[in-house]
Specification:
With 301 residues, this protein is α/β, with parallel strands linked by helices. The protein is built from 11 helices and 10 strands. It starts with a helix and ends in a 12-residue tail after the last strand. Bound molecules: pyridoxal-5'-phosphate.
């Protein structure tokens, strides 16, 4: 790996496994552990570093000095990318969905302060940008510029995600992860031992595309995974009092903060399925805390 990235990674904290001590889990004879990727770094937290790591390595190897990407006004991906670019001494440029708001979101304020150039584009133009998946695919891109698709969703992300799986020192039956593009899910599916089931929780409504998208990312086909589409709470970044109350009660019982876009929905869904006795008793489960807590600034949590 490029020395600048190794040096950055040395400053990271370990992603520990925290067992969730909760009467509801004992009542159903379920053991639940959280893989705390939220703790690895205060800013480049969760699946962001995992997804970006080998992509940045490639960018540095090909001599890029500018990282380009896209995202919404609360994007965890852009937040992590802007900060990483600043630390690595690379320029960053992002296309932001929708008109420039009169008051910038806390996420946009941060990323601008870290030197990211922001270009606001219409939703139609934004949708068009989504088709460019390769680092050099963006029309008009210069040799020194490196394109990273929305959410950091590209094949090199899988290698970084696989590392979180290999860090898990215990045997387990099921591993859960929230899904946006499904890239994190695909990385996990490709890395778990054969007997482990993988369950993704879709954060978006009408996310049926995930089945085909995840399949397309897998190097070897697998039958041991599934996406649950029932806990999107009305759509991406939608939440309601039930979800927010669940998150706040969870934080009170465990001391672990969640956010309502991804991790809150995954754990709400997992708890709901456990309550419905969807899983065999005696199972050990791991849920990946994919971070994203900076996004909480957009919600009254
Ligand atoms: C905190 C958090 N969790 C989960 C995801 C979903 O990841 P993926 O797009 O790889 O499915 C994202 C988006 O990248 C995220 O920011």
């Amino acid at each position: 790996m490029h020395p600048a990235l190794s040096q950055l990674e040395h400053s990271f904290q370990p992603s520990v496994l925290t067992q969730i001590d909760d009467p509801l889990l004992s009542e159903h004879n379920i053991e639940l552990w959280l893989k705390r990727d939220d703790l690895i770094h205060p800013i480049i937290s969760g699946n962001k570093w995992r997804k970006l790591k080998y992509c940045l390595d490639h960018a540095l190897t090909v001599g890029a000095d500018t990282l380009m990407s896209m995202g919404g006004a609360y994007s965890n991906h852009l937040h992590a990318l802007a900060y990483t670019g600043k630390v690595l001494g690379l320029k960053t440029h992002a296309f932001i969905r929708g008109e420039r708001p009169s008051v910038l979101t806390p996420t946009l304020i941060d990323i601008q302060q870290w030197g990211m150039e922001l270009t606001f584009i219409s939703r139609t133009e934004y949708r068009q940008l989504r088709q460019y998946k390769q680092h050099d695919a963006l029309p008009g891109i210069k040799p020194n510029e490196y394109w990273i698709p929305e959410g950091g969703a590209q094949v090199l992300a899988l290698k970084g995600i696989a590392e979180l799986v290999t860090e898990i020192p215990v045997c387990y039956d099921l591993i859960c992860v929230p899904c946006g593009t499904g890239t994190t899910l695909a990385g996990i599916i490709g890395a778990v031992p054969e007997q482990v089931s993988v369950l993704g929780f879709a954060a978006l409504k009408s996310a049926g595309f995930l089945n085909a998208d995840v399949d397309a990312l897998l190097v070897e086909p697998s039958l041991h995974w599934q996406v649950n589409f029932d806990y999107h709470f009305g759509g991406f970044a939608n939440s309601n009092a039930t979800l927010l109350q669940f998150m706040s009660a969870f934080a009170q019982r465990t001391g672990i903060l969640l956010e309502p876009v991804y991790t809150g929905k995954m754990l709400y869904g997992l708890y709901d399925l456990i309550t419905q006795r969807h899983f065999k008793p005696g199972q050990r489960m791991i849920a990946v805390h994919t971070g994203g807590l900076q996004g909480n600034r957009g919600f009254k949590v």
